[in-house]
Amino acid sequence: MLLEELRRQVLDANLELGRRGLVLYTFGNASGIWRDQGLVVIKPSGVPYEELTPEHMVVTDLNGTVVEGDLRPSSDLPTHLVLYRNFPSIGGVTHTHSEYATAWAQARQPIPCLGTTHADYFYGPVPVTEVMSDSEIATEYEKNTGDVIVRAFASLDYKTMPAVLVANHGPFTWGPDASAAAHHAVVLEAVAKMASFSFGIDPSVQPVSRALLDKHYLRKHGANAYYGQVRK
Fold first, then answer.
1. Which residue from 116, 177, 191, 232 lies 20 to 30 Å from 65 (Cα-Cα)?
2. Is the residue at 109 inside a domain?
3. Phi-psi sector, 168: left (phi>0), alpha (psi -120 to 50), beta
4. What integer pLDDT is reported at residue 146 of this predicted model?
5. Which residues are catalytic?
6. Spatial distance between the Cα atoms of 119 and 71, rounded to a whole number of angstroms
7. Residue 230 lies in a domain
8. DSSP label at 29?
9. Which residues constitute the domain of residue 85?
10. This prediction's pTM
């Protein structure tokens, strides 16, 4: 991978969040990592999406030190860095304030798996973090946001659950690269919206059975997956 290619990938992931209506103004961000070189590329802080170019993307090391770029990186960079350090197989991270997923985060409720759309992507309920303490908020807030996410995955597999809701804040998603992370952000918003509608129709709606969850998740992601085409 060339750094310029990663810049373009991260730019497109950020633009995808805008194309899909997941961000307003300068809300949200996407990043990607070049693990061999220990470099992270992320959206600059406070720059409108319609103005972004590959050259605007900020390159940092895993300590958050800017190594390329004239702009300040997203203020959420420390959160991304914690995720990259603790989830070693991910290659991209997104954060949005998309309406429905954020509503679930503000309600401090996990999104239950009510149907097969959810099961195709998330292997169970999308978790919500614990509420951050006053001291966590007052000191190293963004890093501590990453830490609270990692704690939420103490007994969960980040590879089968590529999303989380930070209590009172909003969703973060990840994947093998920045494009996949953005894709998961789009699907997360869709299933959050559908879950909201489902509870509006029937407040006693129940999650899918384990058999249906396994069938839909594993046919796409399991060892014997058969969904889609074989790549040669």
1. 177
2. yes
3. left
4. 98
5. 120, 227
6. 39
7. no
8. E
9. 3-221
10. 0.95
